[in-house]
Amino acid sequence: MPTTAVPGSTSYEVITLNQALNYLNKSPTAWNLINNSSNVEIIVNNVGLNMVMTTSREIVWDPSVAHQLRAADGTIGIQSPALALAHELAHKLYGNNEGQATAFEHQVAIELGEPTRADYESLLGYVTVQNATQHTENGQWVASDIFGVEYVICPYNGTVQENTAPATGWGAQSAAAAAAAAVVMAAAAVGEVAYIFLRTLRKARHGLGT
Ligand SMILES: [Zn+2]
Fold first, then answer.
1. Ligand 1 centre distance from Cα of residue 90 (Å)
2. Concatenated DSSP letters for 57-118?
3. Measured between alpha carbons, how far is 142 from 132 in angstroms, rounded to an integer?
4. Is residue 167 part of a domain?
5. Is 1 within the bounds of a domain?
6. Spacing, Cα 183 to ligand 1 middle (Å)
7. 49: three-class secondary structure by DSSP
8. Does 2 fall in a domain?
9. 123 CA to middle of ligand 1, Å?
10. What is the greatest pairwise CA distance in the chain?
11. Residue 126 included in any domain
């Protein structure tokens, strides 16, 4: 699909959205949805909002909010902000049906090795992360760099008390990744990068004072 970055987007917003989409594209289920989505506008915010506007093309997404979930087997894990974006994209397909959106999210999580939740209500809390791909997997905190290469950060204790994530940066972990980020930013400047329209939620930022 044609790719466009909305003028005024910050480099962080452009990179974090593309990083999340590159990561989600490793899931065949998410790839299919993303590449068949059109006329969707993702509004990046940093005030904790993840929601879909059913009456417009907009999705509101906070790339720093990860979800702490309880799986059907009782284990607790942290699902990445990228998965939250997949959940909201699914609402474009399923409307307000949380069961269907959560089933979609569940399938994408399995394909990416992320934790799942027993049902929509099995959301325990929110964890602030720096990298939109950051999640727990097999007892470890992991994240992907801008190339989509996953790296292990540190062990995860799997308790409901843990509500702060270990620092990762947002993925430019090497000189090569930093160089790739610069390429993404340069392409964004000429409007070639974001898979889906992107603009900022400056009103919310200013209105809520965060
Ligand atoms: Zn939902």
1. 8
2. SEEEE-TTEEEEEE-TTS-EEEE-HHHHHHHHHHHHHHTT-HHHHHHHHHHHHHHHT----S
3. 11
4. yes
5. no
6. 34
7. coil
8. no
9. 12
10. 48
11. yes
The full DSSP string for 101-168 is HHHHHHHHHHHHT----SSTT-EEEEEE-SSTT-EEETTEEEEE-TTS-EEEEEE----TT--BPPP-
Per residue in 92-126, pLDDT (tens digit) is 888 889 999 999 999 999 999 999 999 999 998 88
Q: Quick check: helix, strand or coil at residue 187? A: helix
Give the distance (Å) from ligand 1 centre to CA of residue 87. 6
Cα–ligand 1 centroid distance for 174 (angstroms): 35
pLDDT in tens, 127-167: 888 789 999 999 899 998 777 778 888 888 776 555 566 66
Question: What pLDDT sits at residue 149?
Answer: 79
Q: How far is the CA of 51 from the centre of ligand 1 (A)?
A: 7
Could you report the per-residue pLDDT of 25-60, keeping only the tens digit for each? 899 999 998 888 777 888 888 778 888 877 777 888
Token pair listed for 8: 């005024």
What's the structural domain count of the chain?
1
Domain containing 187: what range? 11-208
